[in-house]
Design goal:
- There is one protein chain.
- By secondary structure, the chain is mostly helical.
- The protein folds into 2 domains: 1-63; 65-104.
- Helix content is 94%, strand content 0%.
- The chain has 2 helices and no strands.
- The protein has helices spanning 2-61, 66-103.
């Protein structure tokens, strides 16, 4: 009988090893499947957000093209720089006028 038990153990060990591997593979498959579902949900959400932002950009700036938006941004920066320079000159002329009035 001892010999029979030994044979069963040697047969069961590879089977148990295969069962363990199968269980691990099933766990990995479930994890990957869950990750796939989460990734698909994130993709759908991100795609929806992108579409909403593109519509907002079109409504506000007339385009949603990144290159066009970048060009518009650079134009706005240049305009702001020009306005600041003009404002600075205006303030300086007012200050000079006040200094002249106080000096005379």
């Amino acid at each position: 009988m001892a010999m029979g038990n030994g044979m069963n153990n040697s047969v069961n060990q590879p089977v148990n090893g295969l069962e363990q591997e199968l269980n691990l593979l099933k766990e990995q498959h479930k994890w990957l499947h869950d990750k796939k579902i989460r990734t698909e949900q994130e993709l759908a959400s991100t795609t929806s957000q992108l579409a909403a932002l593109e519509e907002e950009a079109k409504a506000q700036y007339g385009t949603s093209d990144p290159q066009e938006l970048s060009k518009l941004l650079e134009e706005k920066k240049a305009e702001n720089s020009r306005l600041v320079t003009e404002y600075r000159a205006h303030i300086m002329s007012i200050k000079e006028g006040l200094d002249n009035l106080e000096g005379n």
